[in-house]
Design a protein that fits this description.
Length: about 240
Amino acid sequence: AVSACARGPYSHSSRTMQALKTSVASNRGVSVRSSVRTARKGVSSLIVRAKVQYDTIGSAYANALVSTAQAKGALDAVHADIDAIATVMRESGDLKNFLSNPTVAEDKKKQMIAKMASESGFNSYTVNFLNILVDQSRMDAITEVCDAFEAKYCQLTDTQVATLRSAVKLEQEQQFLIAKKLQELTKSKNVKIKPVVDESLIAGFVVEWGSSQIDLSVKGQLDKIGNELMATANSQ
């Protein structure tokens, strides 16, 4: 909003004119700051609305793919494809930008999808689905589609998803043992581990699922000791 300058009788003395100029400058400064704040709020609001829109679109397409895959008995195969696609999209910004770029011809995008599908051995239902996203100009929502599909798949298969943060990359056997223990703990039919390297942990690992957490990291132990020392010092 633009603030208006106060109007009223005034003399044309140099002191009064200087005061008026100062007032106008001050009001302009407030006006500019106010406009910047308003613009920032507007941009934040647009980002939030866009995120909600993409999440809604992603959920709708993911539900359609889940239904088709279930009906054709290909849910696990399609899930493996979507999991691979999600990984590629996270690791290759160039590929994601290429497929979501509205200026790139549809046939070029489909050629890229065909090449990716051939190299990865994608299920035909997955390939058809990706081509539909291209036809309907929705490849820009591929990340949200993958996220929504994963959530739906885990819900249908009673799969507990856990994030495994470790100071160094853990071997597959180590991840398997942790997943097995977590499965026993949560009583879930399946457990999926998402490994993340977090050097700040120093050593050890942290397992997070839902609102629960198991912290077996050196950093966690040091934080615990620090909190206990602080509590002891405060009680004295």
